[in-house]
């Protein structure tokens, strides 16, 4: 990509001043804004929030607004504090169907995270898209209502707020967090190489300038440590069982399962992981026609690009290796179904995916997420026969009636 083309591609990912700005998005009376018009269950296509990528300064008040409009099933969560002192925002979406739940019974939870790498904006917008649709469909759509009764869903749109803000203000293609290193002019740690399980910083040791710099020790990345500490506290002290973990990245359209650190060692539940991964990929393909390849994370590549001649070029791997969140949640926190999903596209735009892809990407991953939830519901036998009939009747209805029409 030539320099002027790169500059234009970068410019195209920022919000248009005529369609979305922080101040305009927060005006409560503007048509199609994401503010109190949420009460009217506006669709995501007409919701201005998803017409553009949004900065952190808009995402945080948007979360607060959702919590205030839907207090029955939305709660704000603070995962921890970043290196530069920002909150790591999240929302917990879920409701207990009755008041007779045994206090000794653990609440099953599913975590969907994005934005570990600052420049992967579509991962952040996709987490927000899924959260919004589950929130607004509760009580309106039987299948979505049951998912919120069966599980708590924790949505973390950006695990790397410092880096995300930096991509908006300074360097659109910045990847790491903004932590100081031993080299004053080379800041940042790759958060997805910072977790303690099979941490291996040897490949980047002494090179803080590397985009994959893992730090000098496990959990040196502030935000990775905060996330791991929060999750462990949930399981050890808050009566929570984390049964699913989906870590969204970009790009290359892949569904990746453990392990990331090794292609030799197989996870003990490989058959189950592959079965669910196949279902996720199929849910996307059947609804939207896009192919998401299924691989172990150690085999995942940033992209597989085709030249005009038809020959393939495999770009260098960056997401794989030791110290990944995927491996940590699967092995250390015993999350039975943990995946990393790499979103659109396959290399034409890469990290600079145009904003026109926000809703289509959100749609296809929402379908994968609802499949994920249904699979785990059956795995844990949480749904009654009457609920199954209700959901089946809903799925057999005309498309115009399903999920309130177009999403």
UniProtKB/TrEMBL annotation:
Its cofactor is Zn(2+). Residues 52-376 form the Peptidase M14 domain. Residues 1-38, 387-407 are annotated as: Disordered. Residues 13-23 have a biased composition (Low complexity). Keywords: Disulfide bond, Metal-binding, Secreted, Signal, Zinc. CDD domains: M14_CP_A-B_like (cd03860). It holds the Pfam family Peptidase_M14. Inactive carboxypeptidase that may play a role in cell wall organization and biogenesis. Belongs to the peptidase M14 family. This is Inactive metallocarboxypeptidase ECM14. The gene is ECM14.
